[in-house]
Amino acid sequence: MTKTFKTQRELRFGDCDISGTAYFPAYLDILNGVNEEFWSHIGYPWHHIIWTDRWGTPTVHLTCDFSIPSLFGQTLTFELRVVRVGKSSVTFKHEISCEGEGRWTSTQILAASDLDKHTSIPWPDNVKRTLGEWMHIE
Asked: Which of these, 120, 131, 103, lies nearest to 60 by C-alpha position?
């Protein structure tokens, strides 16, 4: 069974330029919030893994394709799929839509990182197992 994490975000005034169109740096900030929500949803809230366990999940690669503008006040639906789990990395595919209409997509690679040594580390076994449970076969 394939799992997809789904959540919504309303575009706020500060997410948009003077014309009311979503500004791409705000999109990335929103995407980061979606990632943070996903990690909490699967049992690894960032405030715990960062402050207590001392590891994090920095983005090491990111691509985005924007197809249709989104506007102030619209609600975007974010769908996150885990498409690859490596020794110390995970690849997410994001599909973002508004009322069923695709707006933009993103492929993102995050790495497990020791926050004190600033080096990549293998996923803890329980984290790798959990991410594997979310694996989407394309």
From this structure: 120
Confidence (pTM): 0.94
Strands (E), 11-114: 55-56, 59-66, 75-85, 89-98, 101-111, 113-114
pLDDT per position as a tens digit, 46-69:
999 999 999 999 999 999 999 999
Task: Please compute, for residue 115, the number of CA atoms within 13 A of its CA located in the half-sphere on the CB side.
Answer: 13
Report the C-alpha gap between 20 and 4 in whole angstroms: 30
- Tell how strand 89-98 and strand 101-111 pair up: antiparallel
Contact 123, 85 (CB under 8 A): yes
> How far is CA 9 from its chain centroid?
13
